[in-house]
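User: Reviewer 2 asked us to show a designed sequence for the structure in our supplementary figure. I'm pasting the C-alpha coordinates here. Could you produce the per-position amino acids so we can include them in the response letter?
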Protein backbone atom coordinates (compact mmCIF):
# COMPACT_ATOMS: atom_id res chain seq x y z
CA UNK A 1 0.00 0.00 0.00
CA UNK A 2 2.87 2.40 0.70
CA UNK A 3 4.19 1.54 -2.75
CA UNK A 4 0.92 2.90 -4.07
CA UNK A 5 1.60 6.21 -2.32
CA UNK A 6 5.00 6.52 -3.98
CA UNK A 7 3.52 5.71 -7.39
CA UNK A 8 0.75 8.25 -7.00
CA UNK A 9 3.21 10.99 -6.13
CA UNK A 10 4.91 10.52 -9.47
CA UNK A 11 1.57 11.03 -11.19
CA UNK A 12 0.72 14.15 -9.18
CA UNK A 13 4.02 16.03 -9.33
CA UNK A 14 4.31 18.51 -12.16
CA UNK A 15 6.73 17.40 -14.85
CA UNK A 16 8.27 20.76 -15.81
CA UNK A 17 11.81 22.17 -15.74
CA UNK A 18 12.82 23.20 -12.25
CA UNK A 19 15.71 23.85 -9.89
CA UNK A 20 16.29 22.50 -6.40
CA UNK A 21 14.88 25.03 -3.91
CA UNK A 22 15.33 23.04 -0.71
CA UNK A 23 17.98 25.34 0.77
CA UNK A 24 15.85 28.44 0.16
CA UNK A 25 12.38 27.20 1.08
CA UNK A 26 13.22 27.14 4.79
CA UNK A 27 13.30 30.96 4.78
CA UNK A 28 9.55 31.10 4.22
CA UNK A 29 6.56 30.26 6.38
CA UNK A 30 4.50 27.75 4.39
CA UNK A 31 1.72 27.37 6.97
CA UNK A 32 -0.57 29.56 4.84
CA UNK A 33 -0.59 26.81 2.19
CA UNK A 34 -2.67 24.64 4.52
CA UNK A 35 -4.42 27.04 6.90
CA UNK A 36 -5.57 30.57 6.07
CA UNK A 37 -8.71 32.67 5.77
CA UNK A 38 -8.49 33.19 2.01
CA UNK A 39 -6.42 32.58 -1.10
CA UNK A 40 -5.37 35.19 -3.67
CA UNK A 41 -6.68 34.21 -7.10
CA UNK A 42 -4.49 36.62 -9.10
CA UNK A 43 -6.93 38.83 -10.97
CA UNK A 44 -5.99 40.56 -14.22
CA UNK A 45 -3.58 43.50 -14.19
CA UNK A 46 -3.03 44.69 -10.61
CA UNK A 47 -6.49 43.71 -9.34
CA UNK A 48 -6.25 41.39 -6.34
CA UNK A 49 -9.08 38.89 -6.04
CA UNK A 50 -9.62 36.43 -3.21
CA UNK A 51 -11.60 33.27 -2.53
CA UNK A 52 -12.42 31.61 0.80
CA UNK A 53 -9.77 29.10 1.79
CA UNK A 54 -10.92 25.68 0.49
CA UNK A 55 -11.98 22.78 2.67
CA UNK A 56 -10.32 19.61 1.34
CA UNK A 57 -12.32 16.94 -0.47
CA UNK A 58 -11.37 13.42 0.54
CA UNK A 59 -12.27 9.75 0.59
CA UNK A 60 -11.26 6.70 2.60
CA UNK A 61 -11.33 3.00 1.72
CA UNK A 62 -12.10 1.14 -1.49
CA UNK A 63 -15.76 2.12 -1.17
CA UNK A 64 -14.69 5.79 -1.45
CA UNK A 65 -16.48 6.84 1.74
CA UNK A 66 -16.34 10.61 2.08
CA UNK A 67 -13.53 11.77 4.37
CA UNK A 68 -13.28 15.23 5.90
CA UNK A 69 -10.19 16.87 7.34
CA UNK A 70 -9.77 20.38 8.73
CA UNK A 71 -6.60 21.95 10.15
CA UNK A 72 -7.41 24.22 13.08
CA UNK A 73 -3.75 25.17 13.51
CA UNK A 74 -0.59 24.90 11.40
CA UNK A 75 2.62 26.51 12.64
CA UNK A 76 6.26 26.28 11.71
CA UNK A 77 8.43 24.32 14.11
CA UNK A 78 10.93 26.69 15.73
CA UNK A 79 13.59 23.95 15.91
CA UNK A 80 13.21 22.56 12.38
CA UNK A 81 12.52 24.95 9.45
CA UNK A 82 11.20 22.10 7.30
CA UNK A 83 8.64 20.85 9.81
CA UNK A 84 5.14 22.18 10.53
CA UNK A 85 3.08 21.27 13.58
CA UNK A 86 -0.54 20.47 12.81
CA UNK A 87 -3.71 20.25 14.86
CA UNK A 88 -7.20 19.66 13.58
CA UNK A 89 -10.01 17.19 13.17
CA UNK A 90 -11.09 14.38 10.84
CA UNK A 91 -14.62 13.22 10.14
CA UNK A 92 -16.20 10.13 8.58
CA UNK A 93 -20.00 10.21 8.53
CA UNK A 94 -20.85 11.86 11.89
CA UNK A 95 -17.79 10.52 13.70
CA UNK A 96 -15.21 13.21 14.49
CA UNK A 97 -11.66 12.68 15.79
CA UNK A 98 -9.06 15.14 17.04
CA UNK A 99 -5.71 14.99 15.24
CA UNK A 100 -2.16 16.13 15.94
CA UNK A 101 0.87 15.62 13.77
CA UNK A 102 3.39 17.06 11.37
CA UNK A 103 3.85 18.12 7.76
CA UNK A 104 7.52 17.89 6.83
CA UNK A 105 9.04 19.21 3.60
CA UNK A 106 11.23 16.59 1.93
CA UNK A 107 11.64 18.20 -1.50
CA UNK A 108 11.24 21.72 -2.89
CA UNK A 109 11.40 22.89 -6.50
CA UNK A 110 11.27 26.29 -8.15
CA UNK A 111 9.95 26.07 -11.70
CA UNK A 112 12.02 27.73 -14.41
CA UNK A 113 8.94 29.10 -16.17
CA UNK A 114 5.74 30.67 -14.87
CA UNK A 115 2.09 30.73 -15.94
CA UNK A 116 1.94 34.39 -14.88
CA UNK A 117 4.92 36.78 -15.33
CA UNK A 118 4.05 38.53 -12.06
CA UNK A 119 4.96 35.42 -10.07
CA UNK A 120 7.51 32.67 -9.70
CA UNK A 121 6.01 29.22 -9.13
CA UNK A 122 7.13 26.11 -7.29
CA UNK A 123 6.05 23.07 -5.34
CA UNK A 124 6.98 21.15 -2.21
CA UNK A 125 6.67 17.43 -1.55
CA UNK A 126 5.81 16.78 2.09
CA UNK A 127 5.68 13.83 4.44
CA UNK A 128 2.41 13.83 6.38
CA UNK A 129 2.00 12.09 9.75
CA UNK A 130 -1.22 12.66 11.66
CA UNK A 131 -2.37 10.88 14.80
CA UNK A 132 -6.04 10.72 15.72
CA UNK A 133 -6.76 10.72 19.46
CA UNK A 134 -6.37 7.10 20.58
CA UNK A 135 -8.92 7.67 23.37
CA UNK A 136 -11.62 8.21 20.74
CA UNK A 137 -13.47 5.36 19.06
CA UNK A 138 -12.55 4.20 15.54
CA UNK A 139 -9.30 6.20 15.58
CA UNK A 140 -5.99 5.56 13.87
CA UNK A 141 -2.87 7.03 12.32
CA UNK A 142 -2.56 8.65 8.89
CA UNK A 143 0.75 8.52 7.01
CA UNK A 144 1.35 9.72 3.50
CA UNK A 145 2.76 12.38 1.23
CA UNK A 146 1.39 15.62 -0.12
CA UNK A 147 2.30 17.91 -2.98
CA UNK A 148 1.58 21.60 -2.47
CA UNK A 149 1.99 24.36 -5.03
CA UNK A 150 3.08 27.88 -4.09
CA UNK A 151 4.18 31.06 -5.81
CA UNK A 152 6.32 34.09 -4.99
CA UNK A 153 5.17 37.61 -5.78
CA UNK A 154 7.42 40.53 -6.76
CA UNK A 155 8.05 41.31 -3.08
CA UNK A 156 9.15 37.73 -2.43
CA UNK A 157 6.00 36.89 -0.46
CA UNK A 158 5.11 33.20 -0.60
CA UNK A 159 1.47 32.57 -1.53
CA UNK A 160 -0.87 29.64 -2.15
CA UNK A 161 -0.64 29.07 -5.93
CA UNK A 162 -4.08 29.84 -7.34
CA UNK A 163 -2.82 31.28 -10.63
CA UNK A 164 -4.79 28.70 -12.64
CA UNK A 165 -7.76 28.75 -10.26
CA UNK A 166 -10.36 29.02 -13.05
CA UNK A 167 -8.80 26.32 -15.26
CA UNK A 168 -10.43 22.92 -15.71
CA UNK A 169 -9.11 20.36 -13.27
CA UNK A 170 -7.36 22.90 -11.05
CA UNK A 171 -6.20 21.45 -7.73
CA UNK A 172 -3.67 21.88 -4.94
CA UNK A 173 -2.49 20.14 -1.75
CA UNK A 174 -2.92 16.65 -3.17
CA UNK A 175 -2.34 14.13 -0.36
CA UNK A 176 -2.05 10.39 -0.91
CA UNK A 177 -2.06 8.52 2.38
CA UNK A 178 -2.97 5.42 4.36
CA UNK A 179 -5.07 5.35 7.51
CA UNK A 180 -4.31 2.50 9.95
CA UNK A 181 -6.58 1.56 12.86
CA UNK A 182 -5.02 1.55 16.34
CA UNK A 183 -7.13 -1.44 17.42
CA UNK A 184 -7.42 -3.71 14.35
CA UNK A 185 -4.20 -2.55 12.60
CA UNK A 186 -6.12 -2.70 9.33
CA UNK A 187 -5.21 -0.07 6.74
CA UNK A 188 -7.26 1.90 4.24
CA UNK A 189 -6.34 4.27 1.45
CA UNK A 190 -7.09 7.82 2.60
CA UNK A 191 -6.68 10.60 0.02
CA UNK A 192 -7.66 14.25 -0.02
CA UNK A 193 -6.93 17.54 -1.72
CA UNK A 194 -8.12 21.05 -2.48
CA UNK A 195 -10.76 21.20 -5.27
CA UNK A 196 -9.89 17.69 -6.57
CA UNK A 197 -8.70 14.39 -5.05
CA UNK A 198 -5.69 12.31 -6.10
CA UNK A 199 -6.24 8.85 -7.58
CA UNK A 200 -10.00 9.40 -7.59
CA UNK A 201 -10.81 8.38 -11.16
CA UNK A 202 -13.42 5.82 -10.05
CA UNK A 203 -15.07 8.28 -7.66
CA UNK A 204 -14.73 11.56 -9.54
CA UNK A 205 -15.62 11.14 -13.20
CA UNK A 206 -15.74 14.86 -13.95
CA UNK A 207 -13.42 16.64 -16.38
CA UNK A 208 -13.57 20.33 -15.53
CA UNK A 209 -15.21 19.94 -12.13
CA UNK A 210 -15.86 17.19 -9.59
CA UNK A 211 -18.62 14.82 -10.63
CA UNK A 212 -19.35 12.00 -8.22
CA UNK A 213 -19.88 8.56 -9.73
CA UNK A 214 -23.42 7.36 -8.99
CA UNK A 215 -22.00 4.11 -7.58
CA UNK A 216 -20.52 5.96 -4.61
CA UNK A 217 -23.01 8.75 -3.90
CA UNK A 218 -24.54 6.73 -1.05
CA UNK A 219 -21.14 6.64 0.72
CA UNK A 220 -21.37 10.11 2.22
CA UNK A 221 -21.60 12.15 -0.99
CA UNK A 222 -25.37 12.74 -1.05
CA UNK A 223 -25.23 16.29 0.29
CA UNK A 224 -22.31 17.27 -1.97
CA UNK A 225 -24.24 16.14 -5.04
CA UNK A 226 -27.36 18.03 -3.91
CA UNK A 227 -25.32 21.18 -3.31
CA UNK A 228 -23.95 21.35 -6.82
CA UNK A 229 -26.45 19.55 -9.00
CA UNK A 230 -29.87 19.72 -7.27
CA UNK A 231 -32.76 22.14 -7.67
CA UNK A 232 -32.34 25.64 -6.30
CA UNK A 233 -34.18 25.14 -3.00
CA UNK A 234 -32.51 21.82 -2.30
CA UNK A 235 -29.12 23.19 -3.30
CA UNK A 236 -29.40 26.13 -0.92
CA UNK A 237 -29.85 23.85 2.09
CA UNK A 238 -27.11 21.52 0.90
CA UNK A 239 -24.61 24.35 0.33
CA UNK A 240 -25.29 25.58 3.86
CA UNK A 241 -24.41 22.09 5.13
CA UNK A 242 -21.24 21.99 2.99
CA UNK A 243 -20.17 25.32 4.50
CA UNK A 244 -21.03 24.35 8.07
CA UNK A 245 -18.03 24.48 10.40
CA UNK A 246 -18.44 20.90 11.62
CA UNK A 247 -15.11 20.97 13.49
CA UNK A 248 -16.34 23.55 16.02
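Assistant: Here is a per-position design you can include in the supplement:
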Amino acid sequence: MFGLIAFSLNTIAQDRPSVNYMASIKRYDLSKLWRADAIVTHGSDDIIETEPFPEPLGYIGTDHQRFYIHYTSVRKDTSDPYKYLVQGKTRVKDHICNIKGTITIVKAQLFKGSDDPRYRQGEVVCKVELKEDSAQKHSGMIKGQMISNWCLDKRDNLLYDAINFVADGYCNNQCTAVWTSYTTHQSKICNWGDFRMPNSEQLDTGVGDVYINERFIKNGWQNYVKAYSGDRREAKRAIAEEERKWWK
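For the response letter, you might also mention the following. The longest helix spans residues 2-12. The two ends are 33 Å apart (CA to CA).
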